[in-house]
Description:
This protein is of the alpha+beta class. Helices cover 43% and strands 19% of the residues.
Amino acid sequence: MRVVYRSVQEARQLEYFDFFILSDSNQPNQWIQEEVAWVELCKQVGGFGRIFYRKRRQAINRKSGNVAIFSAAGAGTTATCRARRRQPQ
């Protein structure tokens, strides 16, 4: 994610994208580590408000269930880690 974020940043297109990390982790220690890693990533690249982390409370249908719920909310499609193009202001 860091490499993708930096690449978009270097292309001066960052204002047009949001980034989403979807998690299906069901082990408390693992998802806590993921959240810590997300916070550290956001700190390192200045990504708060642009890089989002989502952990489902119940892992139904594994990753496909996560993507389906995320898509139904209008924020994603079929990728585990994806960028969404923002509308220019």
